[in-house]
């Protein structure tokens, strides 16, 4: 074992533990291309151990006895600790997934707000007294937690994707087993340390690290689990949904996208260029909401593509820990291969590569796996490069004639996560969002998220919503309670 590497343990039932069989795996710094930490490689036994702990915490002990406002206070305490450690957590995320320090600072600094928002909702989960249309009957509803929830996350924004699930789910009174991506697990264990410091009862949050097939699948299959909150690929989502169906588990699925950024001729083009760039080159295009198709009105198409290329050419690649870097490395080796494969597919389909189109071999890229910011023009929407998710810095530019055609092209996708609309026409700004079959529409802006606003997709982009009041409902179930005030029970053979 390399003793220079940071050694992590998992967090189960309030204890810091190794995998049951002692197995470990290394996590890689994508810029240095070197391992920097060793983590437990959990398996079936560890999954069962974590669900045991979460079940015990849900069904007994301190957690279910806590008043909702006390749960809220714990979440506030956690928020304060994350704020205290924000810089350290941001640096760890950059080291583990190669995202820019500027991006991670902003993201981690925002995480406490998620916990504060849902902490505030914890004691506002109100039922209702219903004016029921039955004689001598009192009826009320209440909303109760689901039980043990499993959160399984992707590697591209590890902490944010975990917090999207934990904050509403814990506020609702559930307990959790978190399984982060095998590529980026360190920050989840760092977060667990803050849960311990905040004083959450043992077993309320458990973190197991390892591979999807080895520890993710047994978690999903465990009959004691009530809900899976999943962020990841479409194929991963299918496996989760199928396994969850066997026990009728609740699911939230946040999957992929092929989002369209639609630029009308009346748009402020400087802003639209920045919006298109942020949609595809920020975070090296490794975001589910990547605006990977830019649809441009034919009257401005050539000029717009030229301006996009000129702007993208100035993007500074390099060490993601440097604040001046704008495009970092690709996080994982399989993802790097996938991006290069799609660049070749686009070329073979006849798309015209007007920028990039190759691995980046600049000195400032060090040992990291970088791809040049890549722009394809003359893309037709039927091409694979316009239909399939690349999850990298590869943009397809497509032209359209009028509003109807723009909407038709944007909606001609198996996905339905997000869309951008760039226009100075108020009518369009109001009408287009109604016609786009996606869960999120940004008008004259792109890639904004907030704990206050529901996030999720239509079609193959997923099921359910994270963030906003909708998110806490995803972690609750409704009970209807009937109380008879009649002196005598009526005819038992007739429905009341
Ligand atoms: P992935 O599906 O390969 O893995 C996601 C997680 O699922 C990982 O933790 C993995 O270990 C686990 N997993 C894999 N197989 C499993 C199984 N059989 N049972 C249980 N768990 C299993 O996805 P990825 O490559 O990590 O992430 C990239 C994808 O995530 C992209 O498609 C992207 O669009 C999507 N994504 C979506 C959102 C969103 O909110 N919509 C956000 C970020 C990423």
Task: State the gist of this model.
This protein is of the alpha/beta class.
Please give the structural blueprint.
Elements: E1 6-7, E2 10-12, E3 15-17, E4 24-29, E5 34-40, H1 44-59, H2 62-65, H3 68-84, H4 86-97, H5 101-122, E6 128-130, E7 137-145, E8 148-152, H6 158-171, E9 175-179, H7 186-198, E10 205-207, H8 212-221, E11 225-231, H9 234-246, E12 250-254, E13 260-263, H10 269-280, E14 293-297, H11 301-313, H12 333-348, E15 352-355, E16 374-377, H13 384-387, E17 394-400, H14 403-411, E18 415-416, E19 418-422, H15 426-435, E20 440-443, E21 458-459, E22 462-463, H16 468-473, E23 476-484
Parallel strand pairs: 1-5, 8-9, 8-11, 9-10, 11-12, 13-14, 13-19, 14-17, 16-17, 19-20
Antiparallel strand pairs: 2-3, 4-5, 6-7, 7-23, 12-22, 15-16, 18-21
Bound molecules: nicotinamide-adenine-dinucleotide.
Please explain how this structure is put together.
By secondary structure, the chain is α/β, with parallel strands linked by helices. The protein folds into two domains: 6-255 and 461-480, Aldehyde Dehydrogenase, Chain A, domain 1 (3-Layer(aba) Sandwich), CATH 3.40.605.10; 260-443, Aldehyde Dehydrogenase, Chain A, domain 2. 39% of the residues lie in helices and 21% in strands. The chain contains 16 helices and 23 strands. The strands form six sheets. Strands 15-16-17-14-13-19-20 form a seven-stranded mixed β-sheet, sandwiched between helices. Helix 4 runs antiparallel to helix 7 (186-198). The chain starts with 5 loop residues before the first strand and ends in a 12-residue tail after the last strand. The relative contact order is 0.13. The structure holds nicotinamide-adenine-dinucleotide. Nicotinamide-adenine-dinucleotide binds at residues 152-156, 161, 179, 181-182, 211-213, 216-217, 220, 231-233, 236, 239-240, 254-257, 288, 389, 391, 417, 462. Residues 152-156, 161, 179, 181-182, 211-213, 216-217, 220, 231-233, 236, 239-240, 254-257, 288, 389, 391, 417, 462 line the site of nicotinamide-adenine-dinucleotide (NAD).
């Amino acid at each position: 074992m390399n003793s220079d590497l940071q050694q992590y343990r998992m967090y189960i039932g309030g204890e810091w533990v190794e995998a049951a069989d002692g197995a470990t795996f290394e996590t890689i710094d994508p810029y240095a291309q070197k391992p920097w930490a060793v983590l437990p490689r959990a398996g079936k036994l560890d999954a069962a151990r974590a669900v045991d702990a979460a079940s015990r915490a849900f069904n007994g002990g301190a957690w279910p006895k806590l008043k909702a406002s006390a749960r809220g206070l714990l979440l506030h305490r956690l928020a304060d600790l994350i704020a205290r450690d924000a810089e350290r957590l941001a640096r760890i995320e950059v080291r583990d997934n190669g995202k820019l320090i500027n991006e991670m600072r902003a993201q981690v600094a925002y995480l406490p707000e998620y916990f504060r928002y849902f902490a505030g909702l914890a004691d506002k989960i109100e039922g209702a007294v219903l004016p029921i249309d039955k004689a001598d009957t009192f009826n009320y509803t209440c909303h109760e937690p689901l039980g043990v929830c499993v959160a399984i996350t992707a590697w591209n924004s590890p902490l944010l994707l975990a917090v999207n699930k934990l904050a509403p789910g814990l506020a609702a009174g559930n307990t959790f087993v978190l399984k982060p991506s095998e590529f980026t697990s360190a920050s989840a264990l760092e977060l667990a340390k803050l849960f311990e410091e905040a004083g959450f009862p043992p077993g309320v949050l458990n973190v197991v690290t390892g591979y999807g097939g080895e520890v993710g699948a047994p978690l999903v299959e465990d009959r004691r689990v009530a809900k899976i909150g999943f962020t990841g690929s479409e194929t991963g989502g299918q496996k989760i949904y199928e396994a969850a169906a066997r026990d009728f588990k609740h699911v939230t699925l946040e999957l992929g996208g092929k989002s369209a950024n639609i630029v009308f001729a009346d748009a402020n083009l400087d802003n639209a260029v920045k919006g298109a760039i942020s949609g595809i080159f920020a975070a090296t295009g490794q975001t589910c909401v990547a605006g990977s198709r830019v649809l441009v009105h034919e009257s401005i198409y050539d000029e717009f593509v030229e301006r996009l290329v000129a702007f993208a050419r100035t993007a500074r690649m390099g060490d993601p820990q440097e604040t001046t870097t704008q495009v970092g490395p690709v996080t994982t080796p399989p993802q790097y291969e996938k991006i290069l494969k799609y660049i070749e597919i686009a070329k073979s389909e006849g798309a015209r590569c007007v920028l990039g189109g190759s691995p980046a071999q600049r000195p400032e890229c060090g040992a990291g796996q970088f791809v040049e910011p890549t722009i394809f023009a003359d893309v037709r929407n039927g091409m694979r490069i316009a239909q399939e998710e690349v999850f990298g810095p590869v943009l397809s530019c497509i032209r359209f004639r009028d509003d109807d055609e723009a909407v038709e092209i944007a909606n001609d996708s198996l996905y339905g996560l997000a869309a951008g609309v760039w226009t100075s026409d108020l009518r369009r700004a109001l009408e287009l969002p109604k016609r786009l079959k996606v869960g999120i529409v940004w008008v004259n802006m792109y890639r904004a998220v907030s704990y206050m606003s529901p996030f999720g997709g239509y079609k193959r982009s997923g099921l359910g919503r994270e963030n906003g009041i909708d998110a806490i409902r995803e972690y609750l179930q409704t009970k209807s309670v009937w109380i008879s005030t009649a002196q005598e029970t009526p005819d038992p053979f007739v429905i009341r």
